[in-house]
């Protein structure tokens, strides 16, 4: 009887100590550098913006933030990797919308939407269709006319299957009643290189990339509700007769599902302060990166609504049943 008593005491003490150690680790968080997985190549829009965030991270987190690039499959390689990391807050991921919503809907991914515990959203990046500056295609009308004359031959590069830019291509095909050859790459850097090298005819890219490319490209249309202040000369698809084509890549930071809520709250508070830093905002503007700052609850609400919208969109263009 006495042995059973001490055994019970031992287990109660063990549980208490485990709880104390757990609380202690949360209280001390972060006590080492934090990795941020970027599912795209160095130099791409997501990477460029994530590196600006990382530059200011130590000021607000107290630790360095290290960018870890894992490109491939339009982001799937990096996010598949992220789905298996330890949920302790030391490996975070940059997320892209609609990518993390739509890719699991249409393909076999190791991750799903529940893999991500959103912390903050930092930016919105409308899709822009562009050609090389020496292209014979001068306008969106030219693009559509050529595509109708030679169905399935015009090539449009993008950052991967069922990312925002690819969805914009599908929308254009559906609404303009044309057929093109969409060419998915590992990410936007490769899609841009293909356009500039003359290997693809058109780029469906991010405004921030088009902005940085300057005179090397000729923008044709932007998939936004209205013209963008960063590039007021680019007409919208809407004003050119295609109001259905509204698409952007929104970016933010997420923890792995299962990360303690106390750690997520610490991260949210720190990142929201970082995203208000005036020097940070100036660097983002210089990079052509528009900010769309949302807190955790706002992002969760946005994702919930977009999940419904994108499912309806994919159904309407016969991608999913």
Task: Write a structural description.
- This protein folds into 2 domains: 32-125 and 249-316, D-Maltodextrin-Binding Protein, domain 2 (3-Layer(aba) Sandwich); 126-222, D-Maltodextrin-Binding Protein, domain 2 (3-Layer(aba) Sandwich), CATH 3.40.190.10.
- It contains 11 helices and 10 strands.
- It has helices spanning 2-28, 45-61, 76-82, 99-106, 140-149, 164-176, 188-196, 207-213, 261-274, 278-286, 296-316, and strands at residues 34-38, 65-69, 91-97, 116-132, 155-158, 181-184, 202-206, 217-222, 248-256, 291-294.
- Strands 1, 2, 3, 4, 5, 6, 7, 8, 9 and 10 form a 10-stranded mixed beta sheet that branches.
- Strand 5 (155-158), helix 6 and strand 6 (181-184) form a beta-alpha-beta unit.
- Helix 2 crosses helix 9 (261-274).
- The N and C termini lie far apart (64 Å).
- InterPro entries: BUG, Bug_dom1.
- Belongs to the UPF0065 (bug) family.
- This is Tripartite-type tricarboxylate transporter, receptor component TctC.
- Keywords: Receptor.
Helix content: 40-55%
Order of helices and strands: HEHEHEHEHEHEHEHEEHHEH
Total number of β-strand segments? 10
CATH architecture type of the largest domain = 3-Layer(aba) Sandwich
CATH class of the largest domain: Alpha Beta
Shape: globular
Give the name of the CATH superfamily of the largest domain.
Bordetella uptake gene, domain 1
How would you classify the helix and strand content by structural class?
Answer: alpha/beta
Q: Cα-atom Rg, whole angstroms?
A: 22 Å
Per the CATH scheme, the topology name of the largest domain is D-Maltodextrin-Binding Protein, domain 2
- Individual helix count: 11
Give the terminus-to-terminus CA distance: 64 Å
Strand content: 15-25%
Mean pLDDT: 92
Overall domain count = 2
Largest sheet: 10 strands, mixed
């Amino acid at each position: 009887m006495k042995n059973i008593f001490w055994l019970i005491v031992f287990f109660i003490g063990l549980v208490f100590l485990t709880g104390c150690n757990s609380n202690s680790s949360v209280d001390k968080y972060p006590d080492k550098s934090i990795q941020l997985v970027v599912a795209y190549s160095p130099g791409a829009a997501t990477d460029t913006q994530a590196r600006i965030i990382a530059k200011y991270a130590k000021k607000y987190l107290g630790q360095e933030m290290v960018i870890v690039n894992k490109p491939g499959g339009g982001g799937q390689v990096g996010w598949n990797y992220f789905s298996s990391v330890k949920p302790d807050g030391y490996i975070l991921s940059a997320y892209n919308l609609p990518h993390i919503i739509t890719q699991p809907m249409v393909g076999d991914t190791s991750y799903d939407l529940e893999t991500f515990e959103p912390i903050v959203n930092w930016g919105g990046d409308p899709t822009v269709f562009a050609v090389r500056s020496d292209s014979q295609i001068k306008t969106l009308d030219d693009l559509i006319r050529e595509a109708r004359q030679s169905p399935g031959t015009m090539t449009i590069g993008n950052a991967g299957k069922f990312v925002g830019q690819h969805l914009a291509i599908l929308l254009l095909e559906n609404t303009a009643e044309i057929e093109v050859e969409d060419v998915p790459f590992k990410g936007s850097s490769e899609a841009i290189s293909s356009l500039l090298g003359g290997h693809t005819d058109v780029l469906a890219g991010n405004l921030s990339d088009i902005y940085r490319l300057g005179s090397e490209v000729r923008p044709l249309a932007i998939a936004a509700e209205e013209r963008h202040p960063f590039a007021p000369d680019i007409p919208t698809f809407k004003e050119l007769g295609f109001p259905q084509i509204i698409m952007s890549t929104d970016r933010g930071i997420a923890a792995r599902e299962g990360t303690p809520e106390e750690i997520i709250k610490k991260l949210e508070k720190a990142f929201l302060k970082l995203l208000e830093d005036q020097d940070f905002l100036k660097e983002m503007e210089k990079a052509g990166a528009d900010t769309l700052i949302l807190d955790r609850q706002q992002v969760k609400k946005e994702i919930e609504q977009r999940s419904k919208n994108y499912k309806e969109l994919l159904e309407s263009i016969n991608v999913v049943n």
